[in-house]
Design a protein that fits this description.
InterPro entries: Znf_ZPR1, ZPR1, ZPR1-like_arc, ZPR1_A/B_dom, ZPR1_jr_dom. With about 180 residues, the chain is an alpha+beta fold. The protein has helices spanning about 110-120, 130-135, 170-179, and strands at about 5-10, 20-30, 35-45, 50-55, 60-70, 75-80, 85-90, 95, 105, 140-145, 155, 160-165. The N and C termini lie far apart (about 50 Å). It binds zinc ion.
């Protein structure tokens, strides 16, 4: 089997901030090992590269958790796919994935920046201080991504990965029948 292009997007580069990161994933058959996904992402501008090979999982929903404890953790690189919901319980943040076509490839700090930017004037008069403290490494928090497509990732050994399973839509009906 020839490697097949399964993901092809132009993303914002986490290093130089330009929309010049060409992200391509290929699916190929590695014989006995099974199907593998080869990621080959490269920024045309600053030549930052992300390379990875992992087993192809048939889109299991995933929950990623990262505890952010210090300034160093703010530099960890995170990819949130268009299907990933972002949750930071300590900061009361929940960003639900909408029908966006692009994922977001950035750092933990970049995520907080985006949130502050989106909140805009809602942060006037000293509100959002918690988020600013988190961004300065003065507040610990947990970054959670729940992704039904299973393609989001956090580039850190510290992350916890949990598969989660969605209840079938008719679950509540079944419960009703039961009672
Ligand atoms: Zn770049």
């Amino acid at each position: 089997m020839e490697p097949k292009l399964i993901f092809d997007q132009r993303l914002k580069c986490p290093i130089c901030g330009m929309d010049t990161l060409l992200a391509k994933d290929y699916l190929y058959d590695a014989g006995e090992v099974g199907e593998m996904v080869l990621s080959n992402w490269e920024c045309e501008n600053c030549h930052y590269r992300y390379r990875d090979v992992k087993p192809y999982e048939h889109s299991h929903p995933k929950r990623l958790e990262l505890s952010v404890e210090n300034e160093e953790d703010l530099n960890i690189i995170v990819y949130r796919s268009p299907f990933g919901n972002l949750i930071i319980p300590e900061l009361s943040i929940e960003v639900i994935s909408k029908d966006v076509s692009q994922g977001s490839f950035t750092t933990v700090e970049g995520i907080l920046d985006e949130i502050l930017e989106n909140l805009g004037s809602l942060c006037d008069n000293g509100r959002c201080q918690d988020i600013k403290n988190a961004k300065d490494g003065k507040k610990k928090f947990t970054l959670i991504i729940e992704d039904t497509s299973g393609t989001s990732f956090i580039k850190s050994k510290k992350q916890k990965l949990l598969n989660f399973y969605l209840f079938p839509l008719n679950c509540s009906l079944l419960l009703k029948d039961y009672f």
